[in-house]
Each structure stands twice: as structure tokens, then as C-alpha cells.
Here is the input.
Amino acid sequence: MARRGPAPARWRGATALAAALLVVVAAAGCGGRATTHHKPGTSHEQATGTAGTLLTTDDGTGHRLREVPAAGAPQVGLEARPDSEDGWNLQLTVRNFHFTPDSTGGAALRGAGHAHLFLDGRKLARLYGPWYHLPAAQVPPGTHTLTVRLYADDHTAWAVADRPVESTVRLAPGPGTGTTGGHAHGTAPPTAPPTAAPARADRTVTVTVHDGRVTPAPGRISLTRGQRVALLVTSDQADTLHVHGYDKELALPAGEPATLVLTVDRTGLFEVETHESGLVLTQLLVR
Here is the structure.
């Protein structure tokens, strides 16, 4: 077999040119510029810092702060109006922000996410839109502070100058005693929620959670569209109740009964479950 000689000069030139092209392509990266590789599930925007600076401090509830400049930062305002049947209807007014329920748990993108609702510092619910009904059963007698705070999809709290982006109002019982308040990033006009009447329901479903077991065993509750159902739940561990399809949530204090009253205004099969323990409590079959 004949020995091969050195590669022709034109071959060596082509090889060098291909290697140079590979270097250029690798340097281009995302958007035509050199980048730092980031882990899967983290966006390029998050990796390059445009989603804000992640601080080591938290918002007091275990969620870390994500700092953004004041210019163009998310803003929120909160207003509470008495409901004619039960409790209050809450309206969130946001700027430089939109709700993204479909991407909760994903990477943080500036101006996107969800909100948490707190009563006297205790979390009541996670909000995926500008409206929420607060049942009277969740508000003990007396004057209370209601706070709404904005979060990114990765559950970090949006912050400006090391303070969470939030708004507060005061819920005062009795006619003529308005709500007051407002935070640096949103204020609420005064309202006057009277003492709410006890919630009325066409059907009451009582559930107990103990040692990870649901009593009675989860089944289907048949309802007619337009009926009001009261979900009375007692859990031995602090948790959050969630009604799928209605985006309704209820804080479950450990060892204390909690009630969520819901008008079933859409047909279908809807699961009622707990967030932390992931237990299915019951199913609502609405016809």
C-alpha cells in the first residue's frame, strides 16, 4: 500500500477556515453575543440579570427578594369592597406587571408572576388575577390589616430599595369605618365594609385531615350550577386549600377549622386539594 503524503495546502487551509468559523459561532451564543451558560430551566434574561438582583434577605415569609430599579418596577394597589352576600371583593390594580398563572414555578421574568394575600401577616391565598373574593369566615372579628404582595414565577418577591412591592388596607368592622392604608407601591381608596353576615350555603362538605389521611375518603359531591357550597376543612398541619378550575384558595391553620364558601357557576369536575401535602379532599361535580 502506498504511503500517504502530507495533506495538500488547500486542505489545510479549509480545515483552518472551518475551525475559525466554529469559534465565531460559539462566541455568538444567545442573541449574537458571548454568553455565560446557565442551567436548564433558567432563562437567558434571568441569567444575565435583567430579571433583577436576587438578594439574600427575604420578605419575612421565607421568600427571597428580587431587587429591581424603581424606574419601571412592578406596582400594585389594593381595594376592598363589601360583598352583598358575604365578605369582601378585593381588586388589585397593577402597573408594569401581568399575571402569569401558566408559568408559575418557572424562571423569573421582570413584570410577571402572581400575588400573595396576607391577613395580619398570615398568608391567606395565592392570587393569579386582579379579583379575589374574601369570605367573612376567614376574617376574625375586629380590625385587621390586609396586604397583597407581588411575586415572580420562581416565588421570589419583587422588591425596590430592599422592600417588597406590596399594598395594604385596613379592614374595620361596622358601617362607616372605612379602610385605610396603602404601601409605597400602591394605595387603596377608602372603603367601608360593614360587618358581613354569616355565609349561606346550599351544601356543606366537612373534611378532616389527620396524619396524612382524609376523612371521609375523597368522593364526588354532585351540585347544580349556581349553588353555593361550603367547604369546612380541619387539618392537623398548616396547609392551603385549593379548588381547581375556580382558582380559589383558603389558608388552613393547624388544628383549626376553616371554611371556604364557593358559588359553583361553571359545569365540570373540579378537584379540591391541599397545596403542601398534595392530598385530594373531594371532587365537585357540577351539572
Observations:
- Residues 53-187 form a domain with the Immunoglobulin-like fold (CATH 2.60.40.10).
- The helical segments are 9-28, 44-47.
- Residues 20-49, 174-198 have pLDDT under 50 and may be disordered.
